Amino acid sequence: MKILAVSSSPRKDSNSGLLAQAVLDGAASRGHSTELVHLTDTVTAPLRDCRSCRQDDGTCSIEDNYEQLVLQKVLSADAIVFATPLYWYGMSGQLKIFIDRLFCYIKSDYPDCESVREQLVGKRMVVTISSEESYPGAVSSIVAQMQEFARYLHSDLVGVVRGIGNTRGEVEHDPSRPLDQAHDLGTRLFEERYTDYRIDTPRSGVVWPVPLG
Ligand SMILES: Cc1cc2nc3c(=O)[nH]c(=O)nc-3n(C[C@H](O)[C@H](O)[C@H](O)COP(=O)(O)O)c2cc1C
């Protein structure tokens, strides 16, 4: 399986990026292929008004590497790890721009929109977040948005790993050991139990059956 990490911190040696790399390392230890990209190397401009921005053939006129990232890496990934610092109780602007600009490729004006739509669904997703503050509610808007983003794309948000730290690499000293949590999640990325019940979902009531004997 292919796992792509999209790191959105402007710092290359970022806390959220370290957490994402730990997920990748866990996945790589199970034989999966992994890659981490830095959004600051890739995405230089926010979404504009597509009506005036699209070229005559329906493609995006923003000249950066976003299209390459989406068409060559995002679509083919089986799982995507989104890494973001907590900025003002939300995700980084870079990650928000990455999500916003997907719009240009799924809208019917884009020539290959059908193909993009087909390939954009059915992924496993993980979010890694680093923040200075530790109270749970500080990151709730990020978790809520990514949950809805995954739901819209018929994808499964299988895990959120949060590390507390401020200076570069400081999540390493977080006593809750988020780097270990991230690595562990990476090892179970495709086996991780994901459930989202409805009233009529058949279920036994036992979540973790005890092996006989
Ligand atoms: C613009 C900006 C806004 C921030 N806002 C918050 C915040 O609302 N709450 C918080 O706990 N930390 C906040 N921080 C601190 C970062 O979340 C923290 O340093 C984090 O570890 C950075 O992650 P990174 O190394 O992945 O960039 C902010 C930092 C910056 C630069």
Structure description:
It is a single chain. By secondary structure, this protein is an alpha/beta fold. It has one domain (2-187): Rossmann fold. Helices cover 34% and strands 17% of the residues. It has helices at residues 15-28, 50-53, 66-74, 93-106, 113-120, 140-152, 178-187; strands at residues 2-7, 33-38, 79-85, 124-131, 156-164. It has a five-stranded parallel beta sheet, sandwiched between helices. The relative contact order is 0.19. The mean pLDDT is 96. The structure holds flavin mononucleotide.
Helix content: 25-40%
Number of domains: 1
Assess the beta-strand content as a share of residues: 15-25%
Query: What is the CATH top level name?
Result: Alpha Beta
Strands of the biggest beta sheet: in what spatial order?
2-1-3-4-5
Oligomer: single chain
The CATH superfamily appears as Flavodoxin domain
Question: What is the residue-mean pLDDT, rounded to a whole number?
Answer: 96
Q: What small molecules are bound in this structure?
A: flavin mononucleotide
Distance between the termini: 34 Å
Number of strands: 5
List low-pLDDT spans: none
Let me know the largest β-sheet.
Answer: 5 strands, parallel
Tally of contiguous helical segments = 7
Q: Would you tell me which CATH topology applies?
A: Rossmann fold
**C-alpha geometry:** globular
CATH architecture: 3-Layer(aba) Sandwich
InterPro entries: Flavoprotein-like_sf (IPR029039), FMN_Rdtase-like_dom (IPR005025), ISF_SsuE-like (IPR051796)
GO molecular function: oxidoreductase activity
Domain NADPH-dependent FMN reductase-like: 1-128
Protein name: NAD(P)H dehydrogenase
